From TrEMBL:
PANTHER family: UDP-N-ACETYLMURAMATE--L-ALANINE LIGASE-RELATED, UDP-N-ACETYLMURAMATE--L-ALANYL-GAMMA-D-GLUTAMYL-MESO-2,6-DIAMINOHEPTANDIOATE LIGASE. The gene is mpl. Residues 3-100 form the Mur ligase N-terminal catalytic domain. GO terms for biological process: cell division; cell wall organization; peptidoglycan biosynthetic process; regulation of cell shape. This is UDP-N-acetylmuramate:L-alanyl-gamma-D-glutamyl-meso-diaminopimelate ligase. It comes from the Bacteria.
Length: 469
């Protein structure tokens, strides 16, 4: 097998897989409906041709295998051509399991929150200890400047998403990742486009728990009742972590000085080690705590773990400083679920203590377009000084009568005494911030999309404001 074609190649995971296949010596090409930077540039740098648009003729080069991304439906003309031609096909998760994870120690990080950061922490710390892991995560690791590495070591770290695999394979992606070690950070309702309720999601996580072999390890956050429920029937060894008093792995002393946090970790009430990080927020300390359980089981010493934590630079789009103009800090964060929004706001407010915080949210996921978490969002902004809520992105994709209301969130926050504004357009949000933000303020922008290029537009507007003063 030499030639592999990827349908939906410009997605983060599919583009990463294309890079892994190219690095492994395969002739890789692909297609996508929307081909634009930065993924188009990344593919060009790798020498991977990309056809724009899904068309049957994209398969004329007669690939030996076609990888079908979960952006595809069976109604796409290219998918129809695939079936008519009888070409062999598979999904990203299945190929990843067979080509890159097989015969390695697979560490799969799952859960509603913290998957990308925890996976990144694991990959970097293993790299620092000389283990040269393979990895595939859902964000760009700043230490590597990449979302993936084939690696030559015996460990592969993968972010295990519960979203479905492909139109012909409706199981969660993590089912295909052959876990030797698994970590579950949290379980909440999400992905309302494919899951009808939380009970259905928990059933999928039960399947994941059963995949961990008897000689493997399952690490779970004891703070989450849904996690406790799905892991109660595990046949593998289980180690717990969290704030709960009976957790195996626990955070002890925590102190912060000059932007660095020093913390100690205990295992079964015995001190394990002292660690350091430049990451902010207690949720990130919990991510490191869960990672510690996995790393210790893989044989790393406290000193090796600390070396990884101390030098970990984080993930792009996670509390990332996009620019500072006139001492106004503009942050970018991927938060969109109300639990993540709340944790991110709290972390930023604590880190930038005493400075005014503007929190800007774009509701745009399949779940946040719906009114499922309308009330939960009203409880997520209590630490901010000002909340700005954008229009829902493509609200027509949510069922009529069950759509999230930015206007209602503004009203709910105002009733709590929070300075809240619903501002429809990106340009109007930028104009408002450029006119009202003062030196020393923090602007936290939260979206899992490009948000109309708001970051660069705001930085440009702030620069213009400085020049006219």
């Amino acid at each position: 097998m030499k030639k592999i074609h990827l349908m939906g190649i410009c997605g983060m995971a599919m583009g990463s897989l294309a890079g892994m296949l190219k690095a492994s010596g395969y002739d890789v090409r692909g297609s996508d409906e929307h081909v634009y930077p930065p993924m188009s540039d990344q593919l060009a740098e790798l020498g991977i041709p990309c056809f724009e648009g899904f068309r049957g003729e994209n398969l004329d080069w007669e690939p030996d295998l076609v990888v079908v991304g979960n952006v595809m439906t069976r109604k796409h003309s290219e998918a129809i051509a695939l079936m008519e031609r009888g070409l062999p096909y598979t999904s990203l998760p299945k190929l990843l399991g067979e080509f890159f994870i097989r015969d390695r120690h697979s560490v799969v990080v799952t859960g509603t929150h913290g998957k990308t950061t925890t996976s990144g922490i694991l990959a970097w710390t293993l790299q620092q200890s000389g283990r040269d892991p393979g990895f595939l995560v859902g964000g760009v690791l700043k230490n590597f400047g990449s979302t993936y590495s084939v690696g030559e070591g015996d460990v592969f770290v993968v972010e295990g998403d519960e979203y479905d695999t492909a139109f012909f394979d409706k199981v969660p992606k993590f089912i295909h990742y052959r876990p030797t070690s698994g970590l579950i950070t949290s379980i909440e309702f999400d992905h309302a486009d494919i899951y009808e309720d939380l009970a259905r999601i928990k059933r999928e996580f039960l399947k994941f728990v059963r995949l961990i072999p008897a000689d493997g390890l399952l690490v779970t956050c004891l703070d989450d009742p849904n996690v406790r429920e799905v892991t109660s029937t595990a046949s593998s060894p289980v180690q717990t972590y969290g704030n709960a008093p009976h957790a195996d792995w626990a955070l002890d002393t925590i102190s912060t000085e000059n932007g660095q946090t020093t913390f100690t970790i205990s295992y079964k009430q015995q001190q394990f080690g002292q660690f350091h990080t430049n990451m902010i927020g207690r949720h990130n300390l919990l991510n490191m705590l869960g990672a510690t359980a996995i790393l210790a089981d893989l044989g790393l010493s406290p000193e090796e773990i600390d070396r990884g934590f101390r030098t970990f630079k984080g993930i792009k789009r996670r509390q990332e400083v996009r620019g500072i103009v006139n001492n106004i800090v503009v942050l970018d964060d991927f938060a969109h679920h109300p639990t993540a929004v709340k944790a991110t706001i709290e972390a930023v407010k604590t880190h930038y203590h005493g400075r005014k915080l503007w929190s800007v949210l774009e509701p745009r996921t399949a779940t946040t377009r719906r009114d499922i978490f309308q009330q939960e969002y009203a409880q997520a902004f209590h630490c901010t000084d000002v909340a700005i809520i954008a229009d829902v992105e493509r609200p027509e994709k949510a069922p009529e009568g069950h759509r999230f209301s930015s206007e209602q969130l503004e009203a709910d926050l105002t009733q709590q005494g929070i300075n809240a504004r619903h501002i429809s357009s990106v340009d109007a949000i930028v104009e408002h911030l450029a006119s009202h933000a003062k030196p020393g303020d923090i602007v936290l922008i939260m979206s899992n999309g490009s948000f109309g290029g708001i970051h660069q537009k705001l930085l440009k507007a702030l620069n213009s404001s400085c020049q006219t003063v």
